[in-house]
Every structure is written in structure tokens, then in C-alpha cells.
Specification:
- With 140 residues, the chain is of the alpha+beta class.
- The protein is 44% helix and 28% strand.
- It contains 5 helices and 4 strands, in the order H-H-E-H-E-E-H-E-H.
- The chain has a 4-stranded antiparallel sheet with strand order 2-3-1-4.
- Strand 2 and strand 3 form a beta hairpin.
- Helix 1 packs across helix 2.
């Protein structure tokens, strides 16, 4: 198996090692491999492919990091065709942007991936709902 060198902050390495020990992984490499597999397959859901979806996406970053706010705003404009609403709030020392998207799975995946790639973004989270299933849930 090839060896890959990755740079990361010391506190993240400590968290990886603690997670590996707590969950009986063979080491940090196995945790990183599992994380990579999860990331690369998280939007591989044939049940949602082709359906019109609604997504709620939240982005947290430190208050005062203007380069992050600027990039998040740029992404908002780049994906404007899919964004139904957007709200910017402050929670403690963080900025929080909340986006509601109406799009297919590929467009949502692209938007989430670009947000995650922004340097100094703390976390990006999302939830998906198939718009076709909403009415069917009431009939069940």
C-alpha cells in the first residue's frame, strides 16, 4: 500500500490518535482511510439520484475572518440558481451561514464540497429531503 504524507495541526493528530485508541483501530492511518472513504461516498445514494431535493446547509467559521466570509459570499453567488434562501447569524464567537437549496444531488454535493474546501471554515453540515417524498409522508 502506498504511503501518503499529510500535514495537519497537532491537536487534530491527538484527536485522531484518541479516536483510534477508543474505537480499537489499528492506528491513525485506518481512521484517515475510513474518513476518506466516507467523504468520497457520502453523496453516493441512488435513492436520491434524479430526485428534486431540498438541502439545509450550515457553515460555521470564526467571527472576523473576512476572507472566509468573502469566499462564502462568492460561493453563494456562484450557486445562486439553486439557493432558495440564505441567512447570516452570529453564535458566540462564530459566524453561521445557513443556506436552503433546491437542487439535485450533484449540485448540492458540489456546493457542500466547495464550502468545506474554504480555508478556516470550522464545520459544514447539511440535511437532505427528497421533495417528491414530502407529500407521500403524510399519506403513510
Amino acid at each position: 500500500m502506498p504511503i501518503v504524507s499529510v500535514s495537519m495541526p497537532a491537536d487534530l493528530i491527538e484527536r485522531l490518535d484518541a479516536h483510534a485508541a477508543e474505537h480499537d483501530y489499528t492506528g491513525r492511518s485506518e481512521v484517515v482511510r475510513e474518513g476518506a472513504r466516507t467523504l468520497l461516498t457520502e453523496f453516493d445514494d441512488d435513492r436520491l439520484a434524479g430526485d428534486p431535493l431540498a438541502a439545509v446547509v450550515s457553515v460555521f467559521y470564526d467571527f472576523g475572518t473576512q476572507h472566509v466570509e468573502r469566499r462564502v459570499t462568492e460561493l453563494r453567488h456562484e450557486h445562486d440558481a439553486h439557493i432558495a434562501s440564505n441567512d447570516h447569524s452570529h453564535v458566540e464567537d462564530y459566524c453561521v451561514d445557513c443556506f436552503v437549496l433546491e437542487a439535485d444531488l450533484d449540485a448540492i454535493s458540489t456546493f457542500v464540497g466547495k464550502l468545506r474546501a474554504v480555508e478556516d471554515v470550522e464545520t459544514v453540515d447539511y440535511s437532505l429531503v427528497s421533495l417528491d417524498s414530502i407529500g407521500h409522508l403524510q399519506d403513510a
